[in-house]
Amino acid sequence: MGIRINWRECLELVCAGFLWGVGIFLAALLFSAASSFLFPKPAHAESIPAAALRYRSEVIRAARVEAGLGAPVAVFAAQLEQESGWNPEAVSPVGARGLGQFMPGTAKDLGRSRPDLGPANPTNPGWAIRALCAYDLANLGRIRAATPPATQCDAWALALMAYNGGLGWVWRDQAKAKAQGLDPGLWQSVASVNAGRSLAAKRENARYGPAILFKRQPKYLAWGPGIRCEVAR
Hints:
By secondary structure, the protein is mainly α. It has helices at 7-38, 50-53, 56-67, 73-84, 104-113, 125-146, 152-165, 167-179, 187-191, 199-216.
């Protein structure tokens, strides 16, 4: 006796299976889209260099020791990336060394003014991280005392410029900005004038603070607080 095949029923089963599969696929697609919308990944989290992760705890600890629990950890981390790319053995063409790229003279000065940091050693990651935090905060305090910045963002941008090019040059540029009728409390005003540096040095210095605060800082906000900066005015 031959087997009779009901082709109509087979076709219906095949169609039902196909539609069921399409339904499952669409449901999964919608769930994935909804999950991405409701639970987005932290911005820039994937961009943190792998080398940075080994120093995360040290950066947080040093920042809090120097500036308290509200320390701008994200700024310090972004600056370390800007300076050395998290390479403790980095050496610049002009002789700056370590994670914080300290020049020998600056390291010696810090060793004298802050003996509690320990013997000055720019190639020691622990010393370099703590010294970077301390040096930033020292420059920040002097800038605020001399010419009150317009905002906290301006204060930090100027302090970072002082780290990169020297506090004296920031003050000279502020004086020139004021003489030209510009607000010396705005980092953009200070960045727009040159009190006598080479064009290359001034260009690097003017871009240094914004590169840290606007470009690199956001990716480190998962490590701790940062400094809020609006889009450059």
